[in-house]
Amino acid sequence: DGAETAKNKFVFVLAVSSMHASLAPFQVAKAEGLRTNVLYDVGELFELGIQLAYLLLLLALIGAGTFFVIRQVLVRRELDLSAKQLQEQVRSGDGSATQLFELGAVMLRRKLYPAATKYLLEAIEKWDGEDQDLAQVYNALGVAYVRDGKTEKAIAQFENAVKLQPGYVTAWNNLGDAYEKTDDLKLALQAFQEVVLLDPNNKVARPRRDALKEKVDMYKGVAVRSKKK
């Protein structure tokens, strides 16, 4: 009986072990399936997050673009209204030199350069205010000439502006730019050097001055070598 009992126990243990062995692959497969599902869910959430980020970015860009367009329309409308009011005053004969200057500046912003030139010249002829303020009119006239492709005429106006107001940094910058457009590098360099003297941290003039100095020095070296030949 004892031997029979021991035999039965051995058979039971063997059966249980076999059952565990047969269930092990199923449990592993189930665990792998769960892990795959978890990974799939995480990947799906990650992809959804990226799509949401792109959507938010797109909406932000559309919003910014719409704001820019609306702002441009409002600015344009404001300029049109200002031009209309100023033109009515000028045509009635009551327009002052200052109003002519303002009208010229409005036309300049509207990119109507011949009209801007006309009103700015009239403002200069009628000017009875301070010379420092007149310098701004000359500078605006110079800008109108540059944008209309008349750089030589622009140079004369910028020179008038800095004569009337020697510390006029914007006019000096414009003068340097105009000289560079006509390939007069030495005078352009002088203009930008003047700006740096007046405003040492000027972000426009400093790099332009340094670049022009290199060009002038380089061409100077070429000229010296050609003379030796």
TrEMBL record:
Q: Where are the TPR repeats?
A: 135-168, 169-202
Give the transmembrane region(s): 48-70
Q: Which InterPro entries match?
A: CellSynth/LPSAsmb/PSIAsmb, TPR-like_helical_dom_sf, TPR_rpt
Q: Which domain of life is it from?
A: Eukaryota
Q: Keyword Cell inner membrane on this protein? A: no
Alphabetized, the UniProt keywords read: Membrane, Repeat, TPR repeat, Transmembrane, Transmembrane helix
Keyword Repeat among UniProt keywords: yes
Q: What is the designated name of this protein?
A: Uncharacterized protein
> What is the organism field in this record?
Genlisea aurea
Taxonomic placement = Eukaryota, Viridiplantae, Streptophyta, Embryophyta, Tracheophyta
